[in-house]
């Protein structure tokens, strides 16, 4: 059953009560882990230098760091600036396996105008966890995050 993303957006909007990127990204990760079923990791990777993602706030097991744009699902999302919805991460030749329990992944680029601030990465132990509806709903949540946050590092 698809979550009620309109309700989740209203709840997230109430949590994002500051413009601070660190507070808002930490709140967003914690909130998504609580509200979305079957996640084992939710976090941000930040672009602090060209071509490289650095670990930001997250919920879950320790993560891989850094991630170059030419590696893995997060790198592909950053490089192409398009959402990556992967049903089976083990079928991706350059997948970076930070947690062997992860089977599906959804990575959404976080853009402020033309500037790539980073990516939101969601992992699940369930294959095919993320539907088209989940992708659209979480992309709306990322847009809300961007509208409520000063994206300066």
UniProtKB/TrEMBL annotation:
Organism expressing this protein natively: Halomonas ventosae
Segments forming domain GAF: 27-143
GO MF terms held by the record: L-methionine-(R)-S-oxide reductase activity
InterPro entries: GAF (IPR003018), GAF-like_dom_sf (IPR029016), Phosphatase_reg/MetRdx (IPR051330)
Domain of life: Bacteria
Family per similarity comment: Belongs to the free Met sulfoxide reductase family.
GO cellular component, one term: cytosol
The name this protein goes by in its record: GAF domain-containing protein
